[in-house]
Amino acid sequence: MLIESSSNPKVKKWMKLKQKKYRYQSNEFIVEGEHLVLEAMNSNVVKEILVKEGSTVHLNPAFNGKQPVYILKENLFTQIASTETPQPIMAVCEMKSKTIERHNRLLLLDRVQDPGNLGTLLRSAVAFGFDGVILGDGCVDVYNEKVIRSTQGAIFKIPIEFHSLKEYVPMLQANGVKVYGTSLENGQPLGEIEEDSQMAFILGNEGQGVNPELLSTTNRNIFIEMTQNIESLNVSIAGSIIMYRFRL
Amino acid sequence: MLIESSSNPKVKKWMKLKQKKYRYQSNEFIVEGEHLVLEAMNSNVVKEILVKEGSTVHLNPAFNGKQPVYILKENLFTQIASTETPQPIMAVCEMKSKTIERHNRLLLLDRVQDPGNLGTLLRSAVAFGFDGVILGDGCVDVYNEKVIRSTQGAIFKIPIEFHSLKEYVPMLQANGVKVYGTSLENGQPLGEIEEDSQMAFILGNEGQGVNPELLSTTNRNIFIEMTQNIESLNVSIAGSIIMYRFRL
């Protein structure tokens, strides 16, 4: 079906999906580019496929013909896309929440604000066999297009839950999970932390780190050994170094 | 001095510094925000300070009064800045090349394209005591404002050199430095790589990795142990995990 008018109700809906509020109202989000669309198809979350008029796209082998495909005039396609020079395919996906089933390795995020950092942390969490990621209050929306792009498809591969960390941390501890904060002060060096069967790591805001109140409730706090020459590491780097060290 | 007109030759010059070509012609680049300006001052590279009219900025303790301070009308200041809502201070800095003096730990970058990745790699290189970073052909310009912002000031703290890696790698090897590529295939797991007194690590392009020709000339190639669930790690993550492992 060729869509040519910006007053088409579908176009209006897709445009609205740029706003977080509307994404959660409709339980949908958009991914862009062949790689992410394919990952979304493999995860059975694709509801609609949007293709730029006149372009050649490869949908095999995951395309099963069940989802409607809309061909859009170039200017409409570009308006809906978030990137300046978008690849010619997008997919409208359903938010499908997977529940975290094991609690052997968890990543807890406290007010991580940068989309690239959140996306990269999700990508590393998948790479290192983590069981799930918990987003505390104040994190950037995980269905933000920049976050999704940075995950490189990892968003479809790991359970993500939303909890208040103040309540979630004691709940984990009551279930035998050791919770580790990250802090530049008063922590133990990563190299001295021993492996445990159930570990959860809290990474914090880019400027302020983990909320001190939270840090006071953890089992231990970790710092990553480094020179005095710099104040801190990027949060996605710090988190990934820790996840690599305790990968499953 | 208050500058109000966009036809002021200074304003024209500062605007041009957004272009790579002009940065290298004039040997200057701009940093934005209090933190980076302070780091630049501590490194003695500040030539001019730009302040937005009507704003309060803190220059102590590094400000020595030697550099001219220009007060700019808000619209001019915003035009020169790269960020959408800039902090009210910028500095024009001199490119000062430091030479790499030791070759115990080096990071070699082959066509790293994303500004955030390059900046983050520089930040981690400083954090883990590396002696220098070599930018091969095809990397994003290190004086790009986004790169500088991602370094969080690390750009002033580590020698950066520009070389053709094809020529530089054999030169390092002839001087006893062991050179390690990174590759998803045919590499050795990071955990099995033994420390050496002189090590250089090559990280590659976001999509294509390290040039295969280069990989065939290294002493060894490394891969980072991870699940089969994902294709690769972000390059700044991979590089930082390796640098942490072999930090000095």
From TrEMBL, chains A, B:
Keywords, sorted A to Z: Methyltransferase, Transferase
BP GO annotations: methylation
UniProt cross-references to SMART domains, sorted A to Z: SpoU_sub_bind
Family matches, as InterPro entries: Alpha/beta_knot_MTases (IPR029028), MRM3-like_sub_bind (IPR053888), Ribosomal_eL30-like_sf (IPR029064), rRNA_Methyltransferase (IPR051259), SpoU_MeTrfase (IPR001537), SpoU_subst-bd (IPR013123), tRNA_m1G_MTases_N (IPR029026)
Domain RNA 2-O ribose methyltransferase substrate binding: 30-99
Any GO molecular function: methyltransferase activity
Family, similarity comment: Belongs to the class IV-like SAM-binding methyltransferase superfamily. RNA methyltransferase TrmH family.
Name of the protein this chain belongs to: RNA methyltransferase
Organism of origin: Turicibacter bilis
